[in-house]
Design goal:
Chain A has 439 residues and is an alpha+beta fold. Helices cover 38% and strands 19% of the residues of chain A. In chain A, the strands form 3 sheets. The first copy, chain A, has an 8-stranded mixed sheet with strand order 1-5-6-11-10-9-7-8. A 5-stranded mixed sheet of chain A has the order 13-12-14-15-16.
Chain lengths: 439, 439
């Protein structure tokens, strides 16, 4: 029989158990914070009808298509894999509007697929962690401010050097191009790409887009500006910018009032989210000292989530964490230790398995009942090999017992990291193991 | 603009937040038990090369194909969505063999896709929860027994009336057809379908397959048999059955020694797993009083997991829970209450939001820091509407405060289920809310 090659598909990450365990810790942490703020979890199918996926236009060439199997009895619609969680949310909200309570606060942690060119940190399959607050007809502006402290809580719970949430409002840059709405989108993208890092290139790019000198000067000055008051002066020639500036001011003050520490938040007018459909507040999050990683959590306000499904308006605000990329970055940066290859933290080693199996299993049951993940080494092997196995797997504690220990209702608890061990009585095993496991 | 219809795709389940929360509780419970037994988590891409998916033959017509997007720069291989987690495991083990420690104990909880005809309880997208123990070259038979107590622990942790694990060994029925291996697979399928429920139909089906009277009598008698000793007598004319009977005996005794209560385990020679690739031990799990639901957790032993990828043998044993179907069944059976539409268990109601926002957020922060998921009602609304919102969402507790309470550093804690409330001091809020939340 010809063998099939066992190989990965480029751009589809697949991790060792060590990294997967680290990823699960991070996913649990994100979900825990989303839970604490009362965001209701939903899941939507990986597969959507193509007309749903392409309704808001744009990235059709990045969508993986899905073909139905031969014996299909279903509808004839074209299908594709969802490329984000926002389009599915829009469909979900419209489809289930009658059963939902608005404002609908939802969290969604799921895989998405994008046919982007595979490159470092760009996956074709990756997990997104989204929260959104969606109103029916109306959504109080206080919710723009509300999502920012959630980002703060999520990243605060991670073991990273620090982070900063940068916030702006798309109406501000939009107002500079109010008389040339066709240019506005391209200008936003140019600002997004060149930001404050290269004023000269930004100048050139805007020139090429046909912007006039007043516009170019305003945008370049704006990207170097760090406060709403300064921005008001810079944009004094663009009265339509007042609304965006007022909204941004309210979001900044609201977020601080809502508990976001001031030093975690910065107004940054170069934040534009050029490729997205935001209409007001926009934000990005950077890890201190790793600004070159790019934003690790982004989002904003959109006036109308579901305009391609319904004439009713569903304004919303939300943020999204690209979890797979974040895991990749945090592991490279050594902020997310991938230390163990198994959830087990205790190995019950066995000697004379057949004689004392009951005893070993009794030990394992005691530990598991106490909530301590435990593996029993069930294959016949010398104790030395069993301890090597535990060390190789990153299991920190071994419980060892033989005739003498079972006769005395004791066991040896060995700390494999510090190479120390202690004989403890049966009643004392859980307490002793717990003591070793506390960091 | 023409509107796109927001509608579901048949066979792709999509649940309300209430059901999704219940599903997450169940998923967490399964994962927790898999963790306690030390199964290492992995994930594999949803997408595999078609030659990988079809290598072991069989259900090609059930595979959803995946087409690459237009701007793809990748390999030209055909792709498809994985239809189970065993084929991906085989590829993973062969591809990463050098980095894995064997026996490799892995858990994998992921979506799979099958183009089956949509019908009640049969989804085209569903979550499977698999554990497998895979050896390299050899796998001690003790692991066949080891997975059964894990099933026991998982279902024991659920709120169901009871359950029974039924176990057999495919070598036993195989031995009856040792001289006609072509018939064996069909006979296994007939036994699987008709089991012990309809001996006459089974008789007829086997006759049609060309089985002789001795074979038919043996199979029909066997499916009515409930112990290995009885089976030995029934199969005295088929000496090759001895090996399968001995293996089954060892698995039953081993599982009981490993802590599986005797009344949870039954030998059942009608368990054949006709459509699977098992070569020895096979098992199914039934919920007491709901045997008509079919098996909710099945698995078995395979001598060679990855024969289509490598000449090295990787024997394994594992079980799989079809989680989406189980959630559907448990909710219909009212064993998995879908009571709340949000993870929040406390609503902090607001009156005069602008004046006291700081106080409301302080209350929320205190509760969240104590690990209590809390939502703050941020939109201006009468208290009555806020309480209705909490009740509609299934939030059991409301914390209410106004000028008087803030002046006295107190708050009203209202139990919305029992319509009682109490004024408590700020220091006492966490303790009081926790008291209400304990079942």
């Amino acid at each position: 029989m010809a063998l099939v090659k066992a190989a990965a598909i480029s751009g589809f990450p697949e991790w060792s158990p060590r990294v997967r365990l680290a990823e699960l810790r991070l996913t649990d942490l994100v979900r825990r914070q989303y839970d604490l703020y009362g965001f209701a979890p939903i899941e939507t199918p990986a597969v959507e009808r193509m007309e749903v996926l392409t309704a808001k236009g744009g990235i059709q060439r990045q969508i993986f298509t899905v073909g139905r199997p031969g014996d299909d009895d279903g509808e004839a619609a074209d299908l594709g894999l969802h490329f984000d969680l926002t389009v599915p949310l829009a469909r979900y909200v419209v489809q289930h509007a009658a059963e939902l309570v608005f404002p609908f606060r939802r969290q969604q942690i799921q895989k998405v697929w994008r046919g982007e060119r595979a490159q470092r940190g760009r996956f074709r399959e990756f997990t997104q962690c989204d929260i959104d607050i969606v109103g029916s007809g109306h959504l109080d502006p206080v919710h723009d401010a509300e999502v920012l402290p959630v980002i703060n809580s999520v990243f605060d719970a991670m073991d990273i050097p620090g982070f900063e949430i940068r916030v702006s409002n798309r109406k501000i840059l939009g107002a500079v191009f109010a008389d040339a709405p066709g240019t506005a989108a391209d200008a936003l993208r140019a600002v997004d790409r060149l930001g404050r890092s290269d004023p000269e290139a930004l100048n050139g790019a805007l020139e090429q887009l046909g912007a006039d000198k007043e516009q170019i000067d305003a945008v370049v000055a704006l990207t170097a500006t760090e406060s709403v008051d300064q921005a008001r002066r810079v944009l004094s020639g663009f009265p339509q910018a007042a609304r965006g500036l007022a909204e941004l001011d309210a979001v900044v003050h609201g977020a601080i009032q809502l508990g976001l520490p001031e030093d975690r938040l910065r107004t940054d007018f170069s934040i534009a989210r050029g490729l997205d459909y935001y209409t007001g507040t926009v934000c990005e999050t950077f890890i201190t000292g790793h600004e070159d990683w790019g934003s690790v959590c982004s989002g904003g306000r959109y006036d109308d989530l579901a305009s391609f499904f319904t004439n009713r308006s569903y304004p919303g605000v939300g943020v999204s964490i690209g979890l797979s990329r974040l895991v990749d970055l945090l592991i490279r940066g050594e902020y997310l230790p991938a230390s163990a290859a198994t959830p087990a933290v205790v190995l019950v080693a066995t000697q004379d398995r057949d004689e004392y199996l009951h005893g070993y299993l009794g030990l394992a049951r005691t530990l598991r009942t106490a909530g301590i993940p435990t593996e029993v080494f069930l294959q016949p092997a010398p104790l030395r090999d069993q301890i090597s196995y535990a060390s190789a797997q990153g299991i920190p504690v071994a419980v060892i017992a033989g005739r003498r220990e079972f006769d005395d209702d004791t066991a040896i608890v060995r700390d494999l990291r510090h190479h120390v061990q202690q004989l403890v009585t049966g009643d004392d095993i859980v307490r002793h193991v717990r003591g070793l496991l506390v960091p």
